[in-house]
Amino acid sequence: MPVSSCLLWRTNVALALALSLVCACSSPTHHFVSPSPLVTLTQVSQDPYTNKTSQHKTEVEPDTFAFGDTVVAAFKAGRFFKGGASNIGWATSINGGRTWAHGFLPGTTVFAGGPYEQVSDPSVAYDARRNVWMISYLAHKTSLSPGSLTDVLVSRSTTGGLSWSTPVPVRQGRPGSAFDKDWIVCDDTTTSPFYGHCYTEFDEGCCIDLVLMSTSTDGGQTWGGLQTTADRASGLGGQPLVQPN
């Protein structure tokens, strides 16, 4: 190798090493930041039930919906070992989460003055046209097993989510129907031609999880017949959404 080339090569190597050292020394330092003291956790409910068929001190599968300063949460309380729960709990804040009221839906399971063995899958919606809050959920008349009877129900609140009605049937189950994974939503866009329509979606487990929908136009007091999608879609865990139009 010519001397000039050798010197050039050594110079380039030295320069590369120097640059590497500079980059290594100037790498950003990572600092761990402590959580802000302004962020606090607030417990809003606790499982009050004691039946031996459930795992207690458990409240699971929450759903929340907010409209303005009002936030409503619904959740399962007293989770059964194979699914379902002793009841559906609710927690409501009317000041953006600063303070909460809470309770449990009436007239649902045998643990709350109702006819059902267990309830499951709560979801929350708000009908802005009629100022009605709704919690949709499944109610099982027998334990979760093949052939069990499952109803789709809604509990309503006309008091801003601070008290709740006994269940309103969306659809009553029949042997083998196995309704599952309900979800509720309302059209709250004032310019929509369907303003005030509320929709509960669920699937029918007996029929390859056929997706079904029922509609209410009176704040959840009554519910219409079941509709499938145009292509009779099937699936588990659907979540209906509304658009502005």
What does this structure look like?
It is globular, with a radius of gyration of 27 Å. By secondary structure, the chain is mainly beta. Helices cover about 10% and strands about 35% of the residues. The chain has one helix at about 5-25, and strands spanning about 55-65, 70-80, 85-95, 100-105, 120-125, 130-140, 150-155, 170, 180-185, 200-205, 210-215. It has a domain at about 55-215: Neuraminidase (6 Propeller). Strand 2 (about 70-80) and strand 3 form a beta hairpin. The chain has a four-stranded antiparallel β-sheet, with no helix packed on it. Strands 5-6-7-8 form a four-stranded antiparallel β-sheet, with no helix packed on it. The protein has a three-stranded antiparallel β-sheet with strand order 9-10-11, with no helix packed on it.
Largest sheet: 4 strands, antiparallel
| SSE order | HEEEEEEEEEEE
Instruction: Work out the number of β strands.
Output: 11
Q: In CATH terms, what is the fold-level topology of one domain? A: Neuraminidase
Q: Give the mean pLDDT.
A: 86
Instruction: Choose one word for the global shape.
Output: globular
Structural class: mainly beta
What is the count of DSSP helices, taking H or I runs of 4+ residues?
1
CATH architecture of one domain: 6 Propeller
CATH C-level label of one domain: Mainly Beta
Nearest-angstrom radius of gyration?
27 Å
Percent strand: 35-45%
Distance between the termini: 77 Å
- The low-pLDDT segments are 1-28
Tell me roughly what share of residues is in helical segments.
under 10%
User: Order of strands in the sheet with the most strands?
Assistant: 1-2-3-4
